[in-house]
Structure formats: structure tokens, C-alpha cells
Fold this sequence. Notes:
By secondary structure, the protein is an alpha/beta fold. The chain contains eleven helices and eleven strands. The strands form two sheets. Strands 1, 2, 5, 6, 7, 8, 9, 10 and 11 form a nine-stranded mixed sheet that branches. A hairpin with a 6-residue loop joins strand 9 (about 230-240) and strand 10 (about 250). The longest helix has 16 residues, at about 210-225. It starts with about 35 loop residues before the first helix and ends with a helix. Keywords: 4Fe-4S, ATP-binding, Cytoplasm, Iron, Iron-sulfur, Metal-binding, Nucleotide-binding. It holds the Pfam family ParA. GO terms for molecular function: 4 iron, 4 sulfur cluster binding; ATP binding; ATP-dependent FeS chaperone activity; metal ion binding. It comes from Linnemannia schmuckeri. This is Cytosolic Fe-S cluster assembly factor nbp35.
Amino acid sequence: MSPPVAAAPENAPEHCPGTESEQAGKASACDGCPNQNVCATAPKGPDPDLPLINGRMGTVKHKILVLSGKGGVGKSSFTTQLSFALSHDEETQVGVMDIDICGPSIPKMFGLDGEQIHQSNSGWSPVYVTDNLGVMSIGFILQEADDAIIWRGPKKNGLIKQFLKDVDWGDLDYLVVDTPPGTSDEHLSVVQYLKESGITGAILITTPQEVALQDVRKEIDFCRKVKIPIIGVVENMAGFVCPSCKGESVIFAPTTGGARKMAEDTNVRFLGSIPLDPRIGKSCDQGLSFLEEYPDSPATKAYENIITEIKKLLP
């Protein structure tokens, strides 16, 4: 596991030597600390690859993380539709980096099944959906789409580092990073590697029910601890849209007030709610832009309003 980005974790003992110290995880003060094993096995000292990462990321204007505490809330589908929408302007250059190492669904959602990574003198080339929308994912490296990725933290972290330092992203207006659920190795790694070049902010995806919201609260806490600006929260699957009559009905009841109430309680911006339209899933399976395929859907209007708000909030 990569070391935390802070000199000492928030739950560290009083005399913590710091995560980058040679004594990290080995000093007597570390006994009993929940981070002891992580600190003891993490690499120490300056990372020699950081200057290479900073060089690559120096040509990226906005770096946006898409996060969720809970799996299955539509994080990757939001990443996909957000990226399609941003790239609708042909003058806007968009990259998508999929760091959901064990569950890479991004290639499927962009219609890139079976594509492979190509190398050039300047590094790995992203796989392009259109001339201004490039994608990088472990899904392009697997021999078979159904192959399981059974990797421990260091190997995952090494691949994320390769995506940042070896991929020729070029000049980008947006790099959208699709992450796995939770707050684990992949999240710590991408935050650490992008610390110097800067992360624009995170968009948090949830569904209305409390079982999802309780994990998003942990994600908010994570962002604040590692100092990632939070762009806002999106409530996905907020009602069901009938494709025929356009009527909406509640599927996941917001028993504790939903994402809007949670955003108020945690002092985070609420970006909006997206109703569940079954054609979103169909579009993702077919690798198509839902917003272009179904412009009259209430879900499309919700997406457009949220994306407009996101653009306004970016520096």
C-alpha cells in the first residue's frame, strides 16, 4: 500500500515518526497503531517517478476524481456520460483514466471492447473513442475480458503510476478518473501521485437510500483528510423514468432525506439528482452517449444541468 499523503495519519500515536521516516512502522511508538504494517512496508523517501508524473500532468488543466463509498451506485456510468458530454465540444480535449483495477467497466461503456494499448516513442497511447476523447484502462491489457485481476496493493499502485507517467495524454482540458468504491490502495495512490500537480476536485456519487449515504459520508471524510476539494454530490437512481410515458416513480426511498439532506448536513454542495432510465444501462452496454441517443429523457435534462453546474464550479 502506498503511504498516506500526510506526514502522520490522523489516528496515529502521539510520537509517530511520520509515514516517510525510515522508522515508520518500526519505532516503539508504532506498536499498536492501526497503520503500523502499512507504514513499515511502504517505500520511503522521495519517489523518483514523481517528476515524470508531474511532467505528464503539467499539460492537464483539470483533474477530476469520480468517487463513491458504495459499489453499484452508477459511478462508472456517470464518468462515462460526463466524459461524453465534455467531449461534445470538439475543441475540448478529454481523457478518462480507469483505476478500478479489479472491475474495469469503462472500456465496455465507451464501446472499446477488444481494443489494445499501443506504444510509441512518447509512451503508451490512450485508446480513442473520438479524436478528442481518449481512454486508458487495465481492460485493454487483459488477454481475456473475463480474466480475474488478483493483485495485491503494490501491483495495483504500480499500474496506476504507469497510467500517469507512461501514458502520452497530451494537452487535456479534463482528465476524469474513475475509481473503485471505498477508500483504499487505489485512492491513496492516485492522491499521492497527483499531490504536486494538483487535483481539481472530486465528484461523489450516491443513491438516495441510507445504506449508500453512510458510505459516502466516509468518502467525504476521506477527501477532507487528504485535502481533496469536493466539487459536489450527485444523487443517482433518484426515481424511475418510464421510457414510454416519461412518468417518474420512487424506487429507492430516501429514508433519511437522501443526498440533498446529507449534503446540507456535511456542508457539501448538492449538484443534483438523476432519475433511473433503463436506457442509460442500454447505452452503457452499447458504448453510446445516452445524452445524444435520448435527448428528451428527464435523465438527460438532469445530466445536462449537473454538468453545466460542474463546469461553472471549475477554476
